[in-house]
């Protein structure tokens, strides 16, 4: 934590996304073991802004609900483009800082572990998850179509589907078990559903896309003893997986951090192919 850089107002976009988890409907008390949480989060690539040594840039903000004291907020961007846009903005607002700032692909699991390990310490780090605006608008549209208030949505949208006679979750096979896929991009989910409708045309008309938020799902993983939480699988954005592939050298291996690098979050393992659900089906 020695090399944390305080961005202050320049990085206010991150502090503004510290939102209370909401919309954990159907995720209703024992938490998942920490290792289980990390297993679910580690394959998901996200992006953070770092200094020249690879340490996350942070904003210092007052602790919520307490008198005095600050915490440090690190931005976790779902989109590489959004993170890069902040760096470009820094070039005009703080050229000296921008000269060493760069966007680093990291594992959501390792960033989560990094934040959890800092709890209670003098330089506690909280994560501010920054969603893509297009997916937020898609989430609000879904809520409005369902008769809910779109302005009540906050955080990073995760999209899933229900359908069939009992309005069960549309699941995918993961090994020998059924998993409930939660997609960061509505379009990726729609692609799966288009294939599913061809396989199961008899229930195509009943399929419905719904939305929860990442922050609420993480809270459920930490605090709730619910089989649904254990069955959840996070589906990384296809765009992020393609970006990681573009960074791979010809040998196919990610370059390793050099000596002295302080980044807490290695890049997630890259799948041999984009996650492709097989034989989704309604599940109670």
Percent range of helical residues: 25-40%
Measure the end-to-end span. 45 Å
Number of strands: 12
Task: Work out the radius of gyration.
Answer: 19 Å
Global outline? globular
Tag the structure with descriptive keywords:
disordered N terminus; globular; 284 residues; four-stranded mixed sheet; alpha/beta; six-stranded mixed sheet
In brief, what are we looking at here?
The chain is an alpha/beta fold and 284 residues long.
Report on this model:
- Helices cover 32% and strands 24% of the residues.
- With 284 residues, the protein is α/β, with parallel strands linked by helices.
- A hairpin with a 7-residue loop joins strand 3 (57-62) and strand 4.
- Helix 2 (34-41) runs antiparallel to helix 5.
- The longest helix is centred in the N-terminal third of the chain and has 14 residues, at 80-93.
Q: How is this fold's topology laid out?
A:
Layout: E1 5-6, H1 12-15, H2 34-41, E2 45-50, E3 57-62, E4 70-77, H3 80-93, H4 95-98, E5 102-107, H5 108-117, E6 125-130, H6 133-145, E7 157-163, E8 168-174, E9 177-183, H7 186-199, E10 208-213, H8 214-223, H9 227-231, E11 232-235, H10 238-247, E12 281-283
Helix pairs in contact: 2-5
């Amino acid at each position: 934590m020695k090399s944390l850089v305080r961005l202050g107002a320049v990085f206010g976009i991150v502090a503004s996304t510290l939102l209370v988890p909401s919309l954990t409907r159907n995720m209703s008390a024992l938490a998942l073991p920490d290792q289980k949480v990390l297993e679910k989060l580690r394959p998901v690539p996200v992006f953070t802004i770092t200094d020249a040594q690879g340490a996350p840039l942070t904003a210092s903000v007052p602790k919520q609900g307490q008198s005095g004291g600050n915490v440090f907020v690190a931005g976790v961007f779902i989109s590489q483009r959004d993170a890069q846009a902040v760096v470009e903005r820094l070039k005009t607002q703080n050229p000296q800082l921008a000269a060493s700032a760069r966007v680093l692909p990291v594992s959501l699991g390792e960033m989560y572990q990094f934040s959890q390990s800092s709890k209670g310490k003098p330089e506690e780090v909280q994560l501010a998850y920054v969603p893509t605006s297009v997916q937020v608008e898609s989430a609000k549209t879904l809520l409005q179509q369902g008769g809910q208030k779109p302005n009540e949505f906050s955080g990073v949208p995760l999209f899933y589907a229900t359908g069939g006679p009992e309005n069960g979750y549309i699941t995918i096979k993961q090994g020998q078990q059924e998993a409930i896929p939660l997609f960061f991009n509505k379009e990726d989910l729609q692609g799966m559903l288009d294939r599913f409708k061809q396989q199961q045309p008899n229930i195509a008309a009943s399929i419905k896309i719904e939305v929860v938020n990442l922050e609420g799902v993480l809270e459920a993983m930490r605090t709730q003893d619910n089989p649904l939480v254990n069955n959840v699988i996070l589906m990384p954005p296809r765009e992020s997986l393609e970006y990681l592939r573009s960074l791979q050298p010809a040998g196919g291996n990610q370059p390793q951090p050099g000596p002295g690098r302080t980044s807490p979050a290695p890049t997630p393992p890259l799948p041999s192919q984009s996650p492709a659900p097989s034989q989704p089906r309604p599940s109670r």
